[in-house]
């Protein structure tokens, strides 16, 4: 344990669990030992609190319109990705 109360986990464990830098963990004391699990990024909500957040009030889109929008976004992202300088 560090002076700041932090515990260092082996890199192999962090990579396997996909716990990147800054991951907040919940520590649970169990009869078998200590259990670490990632803390939720968001506060708990009820369905009525979030339902309709992305509500669309226009006419319904056709499948062709939805496919065209998806295709356009994929092309846009592909162009953006292919124009980035190499690291």
Describe this structure in words.
The chain is 36% helix and 14% strand. The protein has a two-stranded antiparallel sheet. It is built from three helices and two strands, in the order αββαα.
Question: What topology does this entry show?
Answer:
Blueprint: H1 11-17, E1 25-30, E2 33-38, H2 47-50, H3 63-82
Antiparallel strand pairs: 1-2
Q: State which percent range the strand residues make up.
A: 5-15%
- Helical residue percent? 25-40%
Q: Detail the poorly predicted runs.
A: none
Instruction: Give the neighbour order of strands across the main sheet.
Output: 1-2
User: How many DSSP helices?
Assistant: 3
User: What about the largest sheet?
Assistant: 2 strands, antiparallel
Mean pLDDT over all positions: 85
From the N-terminal CA to the C-terminal CA, the straight-line distance is: 35 Å
Instruction: Name the shape in a single word.
Output: flat
The number of E-state strands comes to 2
Q: Can you write the helix and strand succession as a string?
A: HEEHH
List keywords for this structure.
alpha+beta; two-stranded antiparallel ribbon; 3 helices; 14% strand; flat
Q: TL;DR?
A:
The chain is an alpha+beta fold.
